[in-house]
Amino acid sequence: MPLLFKKDRTLAFWLLLLFGYCGWIYYLSSGPVSLGNFQFPGLDKILHMGAYGLMAAIAWQVLHRSPWVDRTYLGAWAWCALYGISDEWHQSFTGRYPDVEDWVADVVGAALMLWLIQLYFRHFQPQTEMDSTKTQLS
Q1: Residue 135 lies in a domain
Q2: Which residue range(s) make up the domain with 24?
Q3: Alpha helices (H) along the chain
């Protein structure tokens, strides 16, 4: 096992989960998706937002644990945005059509999830004694 993953096995777990999740989205976008009778206007955009929100949370976990990235929120959002573009392009080869509105739903869902993560750490994560001392000094 590479030295990086010996140091933090959870990084390897989240990285494998991210690649597996991206592979699952790739598989789903390779053919027609049927929701049966449960459909209403905008449902596919909500599903895109949820799927890419989850991808953003997983990507944030990867980048948060990695020693080489400082901008975890921006990096996770960029991962989702670029993967969303590649997924829409991939659909053009499968008999489906790429949709800019789907991509917008992807990046909005990713941004919303990352905003929620940031809110959690700003307001609900207990501060350590060292963190509160830094806050009082600044």
Answers
A1: no
A2: 3-29+44-123
A3: 3-7, 9-28, 43-65, 72-91, 100-119, 129-137
- Cα 132 from Cα 111, distance rounded (Å): 28
Cβ-Cβ contacts under 8 Å for 110 (sequence gap 6 or more): 52, 53, 55, 56, 76, 77, 80, 81, 84
Long-range contacts of 77-83 (CB under 8 A, 24+ apart): 77/107, 77/110, 77/111, 77/114, 79/55, 80/52, 80/55, 80/56, 80/106, 80/107, 80/109, 80/110, 81/106, 81/107, 81/110, 83/22, 83/25, 83/55
Measured CA to CA, the distance from residue 69 to residue 47 in angstroms comes to 29
Residue 131 within a domain: no
Segment 118-130 mean pLDDT: 73
Q: Output the pTM of the full model.
A: 0.80
86: phi > 0 → left, psi -120 to 50 → alpha, else beta; which? alpha
Structural domain count of the chain: 1
* Span 23-59, pLDDT tens digits: 999 998 887 776 666 677 888 899 999 999 999 999 9
